[in-house]
């Protein structure tokens, strides 16, 4: 049974730790600069002359691919490196509660970074008359996508005491889960003679595929259920890894 008060205490501890150093502010600035550059520079936002945020949300998976592993690589790796993980697990805190608190703190931090992109919404509303329902759907999809990436980062951080290794593993897993739904990759796999049913099953596991409809303004609860499933699976895997390390 997970104690909500304990999870809340872990959440506060981890969330505060992000802002105890300049790293959080550097991350937030890097996130906003990168999103702004990709939206206004690469996607040629103004040149499109369309009052929608489709080009803005288009780049979110790739921004999360780089920055979320950086934000989560120290969640467990730093605890293991400094030896504080033993102290944490001797307290009246279960491993599940510690995982939940750390995950929610990292997800909330990424959520703040996402929320700080509101000037782009204001700019779009000033320039035209965007469908705010579609904008809200895009933000919901992006938030759940970031949660799945954070869960991957928690799992990767639990695998090693090295933050660099945790970053690389999280990057590799997130990249794999993105590109398996990418059109050219699907076409390449199909050309190898793989049955279409298998190709479709692989593509359905892609983070990208489940984000596409929400990016365009359609919320399907199956997509949300997929992201929740990824979070639960990755946190359960992190629990198994950490429990085995604790027992060894």
Quick rundown:
This protein is an all-alpha fold and 248 residues long.
Structure characterization notes:
The chain is an all-alpha fold and 248 residues long. The two termini are 24 Å apart. The mean pLDDT is 82. It is built from 15 helices and no strands. Helix content is 80%, strand content 0%.
- How would you describe the shape? globular
Oligomerization: single chain
Rg calc: 19 Å
Counting DSSP H or I runs of 4 or more residues, the number of helices is: 15
Number of strands: 0
> Helix-strand pattern, N to C?
HHHHHHHHHHHHHHH
Which regions contain 5 or more consecutive residues with pLDDT less than 50?
none
Largest sheet: none
Characteristics of this structure?
mainly alpha; globular; 15 helices
Write the layout of secondary structure elements.
Blueprint: H1 4-18, H2 23-42, H3 45-48, H4 54-58, H5 60-72, H6 77-82, H7 84-90, H8 95-115, H9 118-127, H10 132-158, H11 163-179, H12 183-191, H13 196-203, H14 207-215, H15 221-247
Helix pairs in contact: 1-8, 2-5, 5-10, 5-11, 8-10, 8-15, 10-11, 10-14, 10-15, 14-15
């Amino acid at each position: 049974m997970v104690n909500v008060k304990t999870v809340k205490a872990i959440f506060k501890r981890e969330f505060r730790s992000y802002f105890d150093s300049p790293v959080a502010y550097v991350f937030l600035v890097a996130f906003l600069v990168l999103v702004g550059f990709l939206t206004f520079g690469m996607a040629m936002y103004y040149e499109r002359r369309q009052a929608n945020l489709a080009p803005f949300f288009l780049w979110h998976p790739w921004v999360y691919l780089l920055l979320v592993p950086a934000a989560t690589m120290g969640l467990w790796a730093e605890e293991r490196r400094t030896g504080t993980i033993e102290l944490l697990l001797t307290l009246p805190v279960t491993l599940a509660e510690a995982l939940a608190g750390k995950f929610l703190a990292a997800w909330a931090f990424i959520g703040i970074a996402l929320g700080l992109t509101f000037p782009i919404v204001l700019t779009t509303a000033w320039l035209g008359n965007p469908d705010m329902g579609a904008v809200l759907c895009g933000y919901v999809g992006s938030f759940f996508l970031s949660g799945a990436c954070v869960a991957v980062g928690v799992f990767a951080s639990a695998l090693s005491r090295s933050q660099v290794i945790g970053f690389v593993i999280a990057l590799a897993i997130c990249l794999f889960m993105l590109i398996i739904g990418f059109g050219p990759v699907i076409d390449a796999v199909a050309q190898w003679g793989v049955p279409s049913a298998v190709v479709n099953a692989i593509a359905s596991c892609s983070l990208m595929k489940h984000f596409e409809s929400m990016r365009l303004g359609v919320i399907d609860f199956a997509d949300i259920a997929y992201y929740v499933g990824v979070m639960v699976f990755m946190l359960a895997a992190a629990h198994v890894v950490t429990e085995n390390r604790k027992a060894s």
